[in-house]
């Protein structure tokens, strides 16, 4: 297979670039709008650096590792020479790549930060393409990187993305907020960690049975006291009440229609 051009110099460009290299998939180069950042990443990956508006090297695939909002414009500015163009976004359709005859997506279902290059071998890669040849190409690249490749059409990708936000971003943000409250009151926030890890492990086994706490038990008095403790945190208080109500109504349907928390 011909080598791959990475477009973008951010987090996923960094992690994907290293994973492609690590797995022996050739890199045609890195292209970005910021010359310094582009040269730095290209140097780390041992390949050439290119601007977005100059000549690009020949490649078997161009991978758009740019912010979701920039995908369409960056794709439209690329040469329309039949080279397959793919994006990496879970929440966007292939329509953003309409300027190109061969288009696809390879969405890594993972949260990438900074630091050491991520190991892609266990990261689910959700792929799709508008034609069979491009799909085969994307599948080949994805399968070289990960043992967990699944093809899903746009509507299902959107549902999966929604579920990923609910199952990952929300609990992580709630841990952040819970830690912030403890720290503000001089209590060691790491006391939460064993509980969080055990809850996550149990939830993976059986999420329905893993739910515990006052709302699960229907313990309305405890919830009322906890809401009082959040008097100075109106937005968090509303979030606590909304989530508690959802849990209460799920496990105690007879409480539906009763007075709000
Ligand atoms: N990070 C994750 O956890 C994750 C997970 C799955 C999928 N993804 C997908 O991966 C893609 C890249 O995300 P990321 O996390 O790597 O983002 P990021 O770290 O914020 O990097 C975004 C990159 O896009 C470039 N960019 C933004 N606007 C541009 C424009 N108008 N023209 C040219 N370049 C532009 C930025 O260039 P500058 O450096 O010059 O600003 C930067 O190189 C997105 O589609 C995202 O949905 C990310």
Which descriptors would you attach to this protein?
single chain, 261 residues, alpha/beta, Rossmann fold, N-(1-d-carboxylethyl)-l-norvaline Dehydrogenase, domain 2, 2 domains, 8-stranded mixed β-sheet, 10 helices, 48% helix, elongated, binds NADP nicotinamide-adenine-dinucleotide phosphate
Care to describe what's here?
The protein is an alpha/beta fold and 261 residues long. It has 2 domains: 4-152, NAD(P)-binding Rossmann-like Domain (Rossmann fold, 3-Layer(aba) Sandwich); 156-255, Orthogonal Bundle (N-(1-d-carboxylethyl)-l-norvaline Dehydrogenase, domain 2). It is 48% helix and 13% strand. It is built from 10 helices and 8 strands. Strand 4, helix 3 (71-77) and strand 5 (85-87) form a beta-alpha-beta unit. The longest helix has 31 residues, at 154-184. The model has no long low-confidence stretch (mean pLDDT 96). The protein binds NADP nicotinamide-adenine-dinucleotide phosphate. NADP nicotinamide-adenine-dinucleotide phosphate binds at residues 8-13, 32-34, 37, 52, 65-68, 70, 73-74, 87-90, 107-108, 110-112.
